[in-house]
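Entry:
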Amino acid sequence: MKDVQSQPDNRNVYLQRVGIKNLSYPVTVMDRKNGYQDTVAKINMYVDLPVEFRGTHMSRFVEVLNRYRLGIDPRLIKQMLEELRINLKASIARVEIEFPYFVLKNAPVSNQESFTKYICRIDGQKSADVYDFTVSVGVPILTLCPCSKEISERGAHNQRAIVWIHARSKRLIWFEELIEYAEKSASSPVYTILKRVDEKFVTEHAYDNPRFVEDVAREVAIKLNEDNRVLWYKVEVESFESIHDHNAYACVTKNKEESE
């Protein structure tokens, strides 16, 4: 059959990204406790398109993905991107994989077990000589306002917030480790199930540990600074304010290689 995509193109326009977006697909990702965890990811896959080709072969993205979806880890992502790059005659291949990741947690007093959902993301990019790989995780937390606590005679406003940690590292960092960094920096973690004794504990614990979004961002940054595996990071904290018609936000980025 005629290969229309490979027909020559005389418009001389280089396209940085062509590919597929928003593909929902079952994948298996690494899990610190159980080895692997099955989940459903939203996947974007791209290559660059040389000026001489009219289009790329979209079906080959999924063909390559089929061979690697059962083990999403840094080594296999690198192999997948190189295969994609070569098969599509591209200079650069990129993949973005976002998925829900579930961790079994115990309530703080009753010890009731329940799964908490975190949104995780893997970004990989591969050229002939350079491979870039970053992991991200969105961690729901509880923040209690230090200012509200200071000025109020009764209580203080508190709300859910989310911490996004994006990290590039020289060795494997588990999602669970980044989750722990975020939760330990908050007024309190959040839980899927809480009995009354747990609710009392979480409420009082948050009151004893008030945090601005700025506090959370700095606390997470300190933990990442102390982790020698981390080469680069970006921390974003967004609080869904309970008494304001806006969200509060803080962000910190650091390239540890440049600061050495």
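The mean pLDDT is 93.
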